[in-house]
Specification:
By secondary structure, this protein is mainly alpha-helical. The protein contains seven helices and three strands. Helix content is 53%, strand content 9%.
Length: 195
């Protein structure tokens, strides 16, 4: 015979997290920042797993750091190596090795900057652009399948919470699914908000 759940075990995960965090309503056992941090860490595990799965079909050609570079090039267009390294938070030599691998895979190329012939700029090939679009579309489908399981009021609350989270770090919103002109922004790699 199954045992009856204790009061602390009943309820949704959010309700249990709220109880564990003192509900954020002033009973003070644990700061609500801890509860939110825990919830975000849990969600990030899911998102990392989704990201890895969305790359599974291309992982023989593209690693996660290389895909990150492809997304930056997709978003920024033709970019100088130094700027690309800075956007990715890596040394220029590391960025150069990544670019060399992407060029060998036919996903990126380099050309002389027409504005300064001493500089090289990097850009996606058509195949690189298709790769970014395919992986992004697959990731969007998996996230949508999870979101569809949520009640409408939970979806609204999630929109509000995640929008606020993105705004706190200056991350621009992802394009809408039906926006063909929208470019995917490199998730988590935007410039930090100032002020």
């Amino acid at each position: 015979m199954a045992r009856k759940a204790a009061p602390a075990e009943r309820g949704t995960a959010a309700e249990r997290t709220g109880r564990e965090a003192g509900s954020g309503h002033g009973d003070g056992d644990l700061d609500d920042v801890d509860a939110v941090t825990r919830a975000v860490l849990t969600a990030s595990r899911v998102l990392v797993a989704l990201s890895a799965r969305s790359l599974a079909e291309v992982e023989d050609r593209v690693t996660l750091p290389q895909f990150r570079m492809l997304v930056v090039l997709s978003t920024r267009g033709a970019t100088k190596l130094v700027a690309l390294a800075e956007l990715l938070g890596v040394a220029p030599s590391t960025a150069m090795r990544m670019v060399d691998r992407l060029i060998a895979a036919g996903l990126a190329d380099r050309r002389i900057n027409p504005d300064n012939r001493r500089e090289t700029i990097l850009q996606l090939t058509d195949e690189g652009r298709r790769t970014v679009e395919h992986v992004t579309a697959r990731r969007r489908q998996e996230i949508a399948a999870i979101v569809q399981r949520l009640a409408p009021e939970r979806r609204t609350a999630l929109i509000d919470a995640l929008t606020a989270f993105g705004e706190a770090v200056g991350e621009p919103p992802a394009p809408l699914a039906d926006d063909p002109a929208g470019l995917p922004h490199p998730l988590g790699w935007g410039e930090p908000a100032t002020g």
